[in-house]
Write a structure and sequence with these properties.
Structural class: alpha+beta
Number of domains: 4
Number of strands: 9
Largest sheet: 3 strands, antiparallel
Radius of gyration: 24 Å
């Protein structure tokens, strides 16, 4: 079926919105630069331009892809193994998005924007931040990495009891039987780190 120039242009306008909505949920990078209808030697085609991203290799529905000359092909199993793509933190957590601490994510987003140019808008939602960090699975639920970094303790404690840190303070440099102070922090990585820093400040002695 042939399309006139004005029809093709309107098709580009119609497709741009759905593409911008659909693609972020299935691939990285999530941003579409532009949808245009250029004139190539008298032939008009619909072009969707997506910039190169930093989260390579790209994945779609848990399958990884690489460029081979002018084609995009599935990544060989041995290459996936070499890249260590099948990692513990990328596996689905089996927890829902409400297991994420919203304040923790927003604090991270705001800090990232303050430090320097970030991939987040000031109004980026929790799922947009997690998506940009590759912390959502194909169903829009947080993977294990998302839970480790931003999970709510009451939501993940029963499933991931090992998250957190055990802190002890001793007199001197040897690990004695008697501790000056001891604390078990069971929380996500950021909260655990803050707890550890506070513990050190309370127990470190200065000459």
């Amino acid at each position: 079926m042939a399309l006139r120039s004005d029809h093709l242009a309107r098709l580009g306008d119609v497709l741009e919105g759905p593409l911008r909505h659909l693609l972020p949920h299935h691939k990285f990078p999530p941003k579409i630069e532009r949808v245009e209808v250029p004139d190539l030697d008298g032939r008009e085609v619909l072009v969707v331009s997506v910039p190169s991203g930093n989260s390579k290799p790209y994945a779609h529905k848990s399958d990884y892809y690489v460029r081979s000359r002018t084609a995009t092909v599935g990544m060989p199993a041995e290459t996936e193994l070499a890249h260590g793509l099948d990692r513990w933190e990328t596996v689905e957590s089996r927890l829902r998005l409400d297991a994420i601490d919203v304040v923790e994510v927003e604090t991270f987003r705001d800090a990232a924007i303050t430090v320097g140019p970030a991939a987040f808008e000031p109004t980026a939602s929790v799922d947009e931040v997690l998506l940009a960090l590759n912390l959502l699975d194909d169903d829009g639920r947080p993977n294990r990495g998302g839970i480790v970094l931003f999970g709510r303790r009451e939501a993940f404690a029963r499933h991931y009891a090992m998250l957190g840190c055990h802190l002890v303070a001793v007199d001197g440099t040897d690990l004695a039987e008697q501790f000056l102070d001891e604390k078990l922090v069971e929380d996500n990585a950021f909260a655990s780190l803050r707890g550890a820093i506070t513990f050190c400040r309370e127990n470190l002695r200065t000459a």
